[in-house]
């Protein structure tokens, strides 16, 4: 959801309201039990950690376009429980067994974990 602070108006940025797994723009996108959200400092994109889809999705704030950033839909190393990125390619994400820190190349590519961070809270995940 997007909230216009001046007016209090609430609109849907991305998602259809139906649980599912679909990249797309606006209401063509589907999420399934989002459990964490983080916005990059410049406000241009946000990241959504999905519990049931085992994915991390990127949402472009200007367009509502949703793409899969990490995860194949199968439980494993992309089994998120929250997280965030800094806009330069660094990210930290929660998973059931602790935090991981990693990097995604600025031109795209594979998320490469750099090392585990066994910190139970995002605010303490300084690795």
TrEMBL record:
Top-level taxon in the UniProt lineage: Eukaryota
Tell whether Ubl conjugation is among the UniProt keywords. Answer: no
Task: Provide this UniProt record's keywords sorted from A to Z.
Answer: Repeat
The record's PANTHER family line, in alphabetical order, gives: NHL REPEAT-CONTAINING PROTEIN 2
Tell me what this protein is called.
Answer: SMP-30/Gluconolactonase/LRE-like region domain-containing protein
The organism named in the record is Emiliania huxleyi (Coccolithophore)
Pfam families given in the database record: NHL
Query: Where is there biased composition of kind Basic residues?
Result: 94-106, 118-127
